[in-house]
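Hey everyone, long-time lurker, first post.

I ran two proteins through the pipeline my lab uses and got sequence/structure pairs for each. Pasting them in order. The first:
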Amino acid sequence: MGQLIYSGIASLDGYMADRDGNFSWSEPDEEVHTFINNLERDVGTYLFGRRMYQVMSVWETLGGSGEPDVIQDYARIWQGADKVVYSTSLPAAATARTRIERTFDADAIRTLKSSTSGNISIGGPTLAAAAIGAGLVDEYQLFLNPVAVGGGLRFLPDGLTLRLEFLEERTFGNGVVYLRYRTRD
């Protein structure tokens, strides 16, 4: 059975993007990127909302031979996985191995989880909020950056009550802290 993992890079005050939608402060350095690549190797399917998909779709062409090894590696990982994009406005997928779903269907995700042995990654706080609300997320992976942005799009939705079990932590040379938790019953 596959695990649904919500992973994201956030500011110390809990935002994935600031009030203007900017997230340039979250770009991982080589050490963090290599660690992320190793986490993502077992992902068989990515679930994205439209905005996160449009940001991530650059990996369809990024990662050529002139790019650093860590970038080439992540491009191979991303291109090798299936992608499901939840959007009412996106007319068609711009990347291979991608399908568009018009609505989020919790039962379809449950079926996907039970029919796969690989991990499923959910990207983007809006889509993740729907999966969290439906009780679908098994694990949370958070990369906290040593920056506060003062507002914007939160990693976790407002009003959430959630009990988690601590699994792992790591501090990187640039001050980023990785935290991993499992959902508790």
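...and the second, right after it:
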Amino acid sequence: MPKLTVEGMGTYEVPQGKRLTLALREEAGTDQLHACGGKARCTTCRVEFIEGEPDKMTTAEKDILAARGVTGARLSCQILCESDMSVRLISRFEGSGRKDSGSPLAANLEPEPVVWTSKG
């Protein structure tokens, strides 16, 4: 099982292939935002990688990051836990002023079809 380290919180074993947003919420118990429900339409689920950043990303993630001008962060809703990784939370419910952390997340990556590309 991959290990997920969340800066300032701890290290957690997560199921292979689980969406990072779900692992952050369920295994690590964080208050990670995910306003669009994990469909790569917003950027509220951003994280910064300290170690173990995946080399691939979905085209949906690449497109929204470019459209919003976001650099140095990834969308946790578009990342699968396939190996050990260490992240810094930068988008949390606490202090956000939102009524909740976001819509329910599906177990599988969305939007369909999922198309992979290099992060570079």
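Reply from user beta_strand_b:
Welcome! Quick read of the second one: The CA atoms of residues 66 and 115 lie 16 Å apart. The beta strands are 3-6, 10-13, 18-19, 46-51, 56-58, 74-75, 80-81, 85-89, 116-118.
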